[in-house]
Amino acid sequence: KHASGSHIEFKADGSVMIKSLKDLHMHSSIVSSATQAENGSADTTTQMIDTNYSIEVGGTLNIKAANINIEAGGKAAMYAGTDFEIKGNNIIERATEGISMEGAKSIYMDTDELKQRSVTTRQETGNKEDGSPGGQNILNVHGNAVIQNNDPLGGITISSKGYLNLVCAGERVD
Question: pTM of the entire structure?
């Protein structure tokens, strides 16, 4: 026990209590352990907790490492009260079933090139959240737009329950 009140307590039930009234610093080095005396050093420090474990930080939690791997045997969840930002040279998301993106207000993508590949694409535009019809689908193209079907047995159908306008404003010059 320190005069300031900081102390390490070994309880009768085997619990260990560490209380620090100021900063608490832990440092692990590659000093060899009794089990690894043969090879000269330990290369991993492991902390095992056999029950639930919470870390509560009143300020900012910073974690810095050469690499970080997080694995959960069940659900993994991350929450942010305001913005949630992920940065990297490449961001790869993989799922064995599905990926769902839901934006309560909007989803915005800005990139130099967008490539998509799917077996089937279904898109629904125009139904309001209450089920009433409305909305619109606008595709602005600067340059050329092509609808191309390379299947000799396939077809292209444009179907409208209302009116259909095809408007051309100029002639193509080759």
Answer: 0.61
